[in-house]
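We emphasize that the prediction below concerns an isolated chain of 464 residues; any contacts that depend on oligomerization or on bound cofactors are therefore not represented. The input was used exactly as deposited, without trimming of termini.
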Amino acid sequence: MPVPSKTKTPMPKQDPTRRTGNFDEVALGYGPEQAVAEASRCLQCKKPRCVSGCPVQIDIPGFIGLIAKGDFQGAVVRIKRDNVFPAICGRVCPQETQCEEACVLGRHGEPVAIGRLERFAADWEARSSNVFIPSVAAPTGKRVAVIGSGPAGLTVAGDLARLGHKVTIFEALHKPGGVLVYGIPEFRLPKAIVQREIDTLKALGVEIRTNFIVGRTASIDELLSSGYDAVFIGSGAGLPKFMGIPGENLCGVYSANEFLTRTNLMKAYRFPEYHTPIKVGRRVAVIGGGNVTMDAARSALRYGAKEVTVVYRRSRAEMPARREEVENAEEEGVKFEFLTVPVAYLGDGQGRLRAMRCQRMQLGEPDSSGRRRPVPVPGSEFEKEIDTVVVAIGQGPNPLISSTTKDLKVNEWGYFVADPTTGKTSKKGVYAGGDIVTGEATVIAAMGAGRLAAKAIHEYLSAG
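Result of the prediction step, given as a token string:
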């Protein structure tokens, strides 16, 4: 067997000077020759550690081995045994801290580009005329209501539909997809791809009802009493968080939730074709250090901002954003102000933002997250002129469902209490998973929770 290359096969991308002028996808994906070359690096380990690093337990060596042989259709079928959303996962999952982190090649070089290969297989299928739809078991006569059409809800729906249950997804917004459509920008995850994956669900028999707000249109108790045998809550964490500092009500201060929802779901970047413009000034600051921060900062550049600065209270080493997203942002011209936090937003006397007062920080002892806690440096305050601020410091749970459902236990932060291995809540027949249980996490973590819950719901429906 030839010795595999120590580095990944490069994936082509749009040139940074060109891509800031459009919302087209940045990463262009592998072609067949590149995919076969990268797949051939895989050692086909007898005890593949990469699989244990995947929350949905895809047969990673199996599908990569098929790509190496040029059997791209076989690779698609192998992936879809465990994951019906490979085009999404191949683009937005943090493989570098999951499956790829466990790859043995990573000990002496770069791991196999598992995410890029998963994306290649899905994109190859989309270009072919042979789209694989998994088989569906005989109808069981059982009905399941799924609240929310984000990653957790879509996964539960797909798994239960394949097991023969009748599944209906209830989505509060006018488009299904959850954070996949309102949170992640087009240049990172094209919405046509999300729709393609949702179409696969519909082919499995899943019904999707949009503009249906559980807790307003109907409660969970009303769903259960209307003939649903079980309910899964995958409503996510979509309530914006602010810092509670002066000036947050000034014009020009956005939550990341509003900024990205208007950009992605409401297509503000295509104004006037879509009637939802969003105003971005010449100087933009995005507060935070995660993937949402990178999405907002890179979107602001594409709206025409002359200077975009990410303001983060810790150092670069503590940033939770994917390394690839940080690198993309830097290539495009985003600046970074580390160990800095805003303490007030300053107005121009007309109700509009003109500047923000910041304070320098230094790192102290680790906090509950394991990262060193930022501590203010006395006498280090300064002002920074700014026209627009996007606050991307996280989101919390919307209390609508919990406040309208009796016997459904929540923790002190308002997240549903659910068994981490089954998703079972304190209410009979009701399960929950994803961000509404754990707080903000990754797409693949939500899908993993959905998979566990689907298995538990199937057992509940089968055994009573």
